[in-house]
Amino acid sequence: MPYLNQLIEGYRRFRANDWEHERDRWSELAEGQNPRVMILSCADSRVDPAQIFDARPGEMFVARNIAALAPPYETSQGFHGVSAALEFAVTQLKVGEILVMGHGLCGGCAAALTGQFDDTAPGEGHFIADWVQMLKGARDSVRARHSEIDNEAFLEMEQEAVKVSLANLRTFPWIAEREQAGELKLHGAHFSIAEGQLYILDEAEDTFRPVSMN
Fold it and tell me: pTM of the full predicted structure?
């Protein structure tokens, strides 16, 4: 297991450097966590929210999955990992904000846009196919606006996925109630890997605006 050895070496560097420099912070965290924001991000190895936002330990409650998708609210029995993470963040940790962060070159969004898994039979254990079906409506809209599946179409698909997740978040009653009461704010963002640029969704204007470096 050669990569495990690399992980262990990384841990040793962390223990000797980061952990040592944050001793007081880790002592506080030993008593519990109190993050004020939840980040719903893609599982892609290139978009680590803690690195992008230069966050200290314990600052963010993070859930990561394929394409940073929030499913719609469901009450069926099953293993609803993302929904459980949302419920824990909102009702137990009482975070004040949720940020959905999509990103450039997203494989999950690309699979949805190209229809890579369209021929996969539902309910047969093909989890990616079922998961990206959440983007079917958005995919159809993007395809209707683009005669070719080009870079512009992929970017639009990634941004539409963020909007789908925000809409799905608002189907959870305990999210909708808190947002309406002003106790919870929802945000959307898109991180461009190629540019290293973060874009924030202006829902009123339905556009993603780059974050200024000033």
Answer: 0.95
Q: What is the DSSP string of the chain?
A: -HHHHHHHHHHHHHHHTHHHHTHHHHHHHTT----SEEEEEE--TT--HHHHTTPPTTSEEEEEEGGGPPPPP--SSS--HHHHHHHIIIIIS--SEEEEEEETT-HHHHHHHHTTTTTSPTTSS-HHHHHHGGGHHHHHHHHHH-SS--HHHHHHHHHHHHHHHHHHHTTSHHHHHHHHTTS-EEEEEEEETTTTEEEEEETTTTEEEEPP--
pLDDT, tens digit (0-9, with 9 covering 90-100), for 162-210: 999 999 999 999 999 999 999 999 999 999 999 999 999 999 999 999 9
Residue 71: which domain range?
A: 33-210
Domain count, the chain: 2
One domain for residues 14 and 24:
yes
- For the record, the structure tokens of 105 come out as 């070159």
pLDDT tens sequence across 9-33: 999 999 999 999 999 999 999 999 9
